[in-house]
Amino acid sequence: MKKPYRLSLIVAMTEERIIGNGEKIPWRIPEDQQLYKRITMGHPVIMGRKTYQTLPKPFIGRRNIVISRTPASIPIWEEPSGNRAAASKPRTLETASSLKEAIDKAAMRLEGQRGESFNSDEVFIVGGAQIYSLSLPLADRLYISTIHQAYEGDIIFPDFDREEWPVTETKVFEEFTLEIRDRKG
User: Fold this and answer.
1) DSSP secondary structure string, the chain?
2) Tens digits of per-residue pLDDT, 25-73?
3) Residue 44: which CATH number?
4) Is 1 within the bounds of a domain?
5) Out of 2, 7, 95, 165, which could bridge 71 as a Cys pair, Cβ 3.0 to 4.6 Å?
6) Is residue 18 part of a domain?
7) What is the mean pLDDT of residues 79-99?
C-alpha cells in the first residue's frame, strides 16, 4: 500500500558532505535559507534534539517534531501572546522518542486524524546527522544544496548510492547548487 505522504530529507552540505562544525553550520547563505523556508513551509519537519537546541525557536509555519530519547527534557514552546504574524502561520512543537514515532505523528496529521492546521503530503527530515542516517533508508526524495565553497567541519551527511538516487531537477545559484533526487523504483 502506498503511503499518503513523501518522506524527504533536506540538507545543505559541502562537496565533502560536511553539514556542521561543532554545534554550528559553518556558513550563512541567506539565499539557501530562503529556499529552505520556501520548500518546507506548511510541512511537518522532523529533527533530532541536538539540531533543535541550535535553533532560537521552532520554525514558523511548520509542525516541528523533535526526536529525543527523553522527550520530557525538550522545553515546550509557547508563542508569545499578541504575535499576529505567528497567528497566520502557526508554529507547533511536538516531541517523539523515536524516528518511527515522529513519522507516525506527522502521518497521522497528514491523514486528517488530528486536526487540519497543516495540510501537506510531504514530511521533511531536517537533521542532524544521526537522524539523516536513520531516515535515509526510508526516504523518497532528497533536497541537497551543495555549497560551492569548502568549509571545515566534523558533522557529515551520510554517504548514499547516487545510482539509487538519480537527479530529477537541478537549480544553480551563486553560492550553491540545489539537486532534487528521487529514489529509483
Assistant:
1) ---SSEEEEEEEE-TT-EEEBTTB-S---HHHHHHHHHHHTTS-EEEEHHHHHTSSSPPTTSEEEEE-SSGGGSPPP-PPTT-HHHHHS--EEEEESSHHHHHHHHHHHHTTSS-SS---SEEEE---HHHHHHHGGG-SEEEEEEESS----SEEPPP--TTTS-EEEEEE-SSEEEEEEE---
2) 999 999 999 999 999 998 999 999 999 988 888 898 888 999 998 766 6
3) 3.40.430.10
4) no
5) 95
6) yes
7) 68
Domain count, the chain: 1
- Give per-residue pLDDT as tens, 116-126: 445 568 999 99
Residue span of the structural domain in which 24 resides: 6-182
Read off the pTM. 0.87
Residues 6+ apart with CB under 8 A from 153: 14, 18, 19, 20, 21, 26
